[in-house]
Amino acid sequence: xxxxxxxxxxxxxxxxxxxxxxxxxxxxxxxxxxxxxxxxxxxxxxxxxxxxxxxxxxxxxxxxxxxxxxxxxxxxxxxxxxxxxxxxxxxxxxxxxxxxxxxxxxxxxxxxxxxxxxxxxxxxxxxxxxxxxxxxxxxxxxxxxxxxxxxxxxxxxxxxxxxxxxxxxxxxxxxxxxxxxxxxxxxxxxxxxxxxxxxxxxxxxxxxxxxxxxxxxxxxxxxxxxxxxxxxxxxxxxxxxxxxxxxxxxxxxxxxxxxxxxxxxxxxxxxxxxxxxxxxxxxxxxxxxxxxxxxxxxxxxxxxxxxxxxxxxxxxxxxxxxxxxxxxxxxxxxxxxxxxxxxxxxxxxxxxxxxxxxxxxxxxxxxxxxxxxxxxxxxxxxxxxxxxxxxxxxxxxxxxxxxxxxxxxxxxxxxxxxxxxxxxxxxxxxxxxxxxxxxxxxxxxxxxxxxxxxxxxxxxxxxxxxxxxxxxxxxxxxxxxxxxxxxxxxxxxxxxxxx
Length: 499
Description:
Blueprint: H1 3-29, H2 45-52, E1 61-77, E2 81-87, E3 92-98, H3 99-102, H4 104-111, E4 118-127, E5 133-144, H5 160-165, H6 167-173, H7 175-197, E6 201-202, E7 208-209, E8 221-224, E9 229-233, H8 238-246, E10 251-259, E11 271-280, H9 284-303, E12 309-310, E13 313-314, E14 322-325, H10 326-334, H11 344-353, H12 367-378, E15 387-390, E16 413-418, E17 421-428, H13 433-442, H14 453-459, E18 466-472, H15 473-481
Parallel strand pairs: 3-5, 6-10, 14-15
Antiparallel strand pairs: 1-2, 1-4, 2-3, 4-5, 7-9, 8-9, 10-11, 11-18, 12-13, 15-16, 16-17, 17-18
């Protein structure tokens, strides 16, 4: 929308707002309170439909009087009679009335109401000559006067930025948006229910932390006046959850927000929702089994199927999921043979020949970082079906144990991909405190994990073999609903401030 058309739209909206404010005053003069304190409601609209659909015939009406409430989303004036469409959180139902049912004054007031106003209706249920279940309105009450018109009914709210900034209008106008957030709620509930049923305890760890750890990311920094110190909004709860395993809480999880002060894209929002799960006496093989079960069952609960169709392709969450190693997948996609024997210089030269953008200084890159870069460029987006990518390089996995076969270059770590999106990360946790300290210290000069002395001290008291899993719920919802941006699945995404 151009600046000129945007300005005209704003001016038109202001005119309509003033007209509705004038109606407010007129309503009060007639004795109608446009913002009452409460509402007497006996039924949700869906309850009326469920109770009477198919139970009464055309021309019949019930003896029971129902009281319903909702927002006016449609109005058809027929002179001495009118139809209106009422919508609440459960559904939509038609109301019918006329001047004989309401009387001249009340009928005149009703006809002068606007689309968007909240209304309480009282009457009996009947079926119209066209066979539509309706309420014959014998009384009404205004519950809330809307001062702005709703988006046009048939086309919904199309302006993408406005949909994100004014999510309430998006939810009112676009049923597909509402379905996404209903699915989100079901997804979250399912994860909790499944883990609770397996004996995991839901716990809470600090959102403000004295050290930014648990992942490689730039933190948000804040300051605590009473403590006189800087604190960091957490980038991951991992190091605190491991402290709980050390303390004897063998099966724990946390579902909540993390924060990363980095770029915004279709896959990144500064605050995002994850679930992190830790299980003592388990390894990354166990973690793969648990991840597959949780995602499959929660997808079924959220959207009603484990075979959703995304852009004409069917996702299939049936077991077993594919498992591929990162090194072999890069070799196959790039044609590079003997990847583990290649030097960093050779991989940088290969990337240069392919005009790949290499972040940072080439001289500072590690072998693992180059392998990860090639994987992201050549493999990641093609992983449409649910897939575990295993055995990440050690130098990009500072919290994971190295392979038990003695290969120190690779770790027992996996990421899970769905619909070409990385939705989870897990590993057999490194529980050797001296090796963990050495890995932290070797990365202190770069952008990697920050050394958390309290965590390292806790680890020295001993942590049993443990599997840890992190699943990004925003990204998982993107994958199973086919959303092309993370902003589509977050109710109030981060946006640049509007002038």
